[in-house]
Amino acid sequence: MTDKNNIDYRRLFFKFLKENNLYDKWVYNIKTQHSSIFKYQFFWKNKNKILFSGNCSSAINSAFCWDDTNEGYDFWERLEVKWKIFRRKTMEKN
Fold it and tell me: Looking at beta carbons, which pairs linking 35-38 to residues 24 or more positions away fall under 8 Å?
């Protein structure tokens, strides 16, 4: 899943999460809030399309309800902003 600049945003997103020590928290929240999705390949495939379409702009925003996490809304909102800045800087480099 690359764009015209040959950027693989899905891979970039996971790298971003891992570099910020947030990959496990992100995955945990998806699995906690969407546990039924993992039972059905069709639903998970559709969720993947939403999360990782285009430049992965919805990979945090549409992943789960921020208020329903241990980290809370403010935490994920700050991360969303950080991801957008990181993504934009990557796009500008290429």
Answer: none
Secondary structure of residue 30 in the 3-state scheme: helix
CA distance 48 to 42: 10
Specify whether the CB–CB gap between 10 and 1 falls below 8 A.
Answer: yes
Q: What is the pTM of this model?
A: 0.77
| Own/partner pairs, 32-35, CB within 8 angstroms, 24+ separation | 32/64, 33/64, 33/65, 33/68, 34/64
24-47 pLDDT, tens digit each: 998 888 888 877 666 666 666 777
Q: Around Cβ 80, how many Cβ atoms within 10 Å? A: 17
- Express each pLDDT in 65-84 by its tens digit: 888 889 999 999 999 999 99
- Angle (CA) 52 65 31, round 5°: 65
Contact (CB, 8 A) for 32 and 38: no
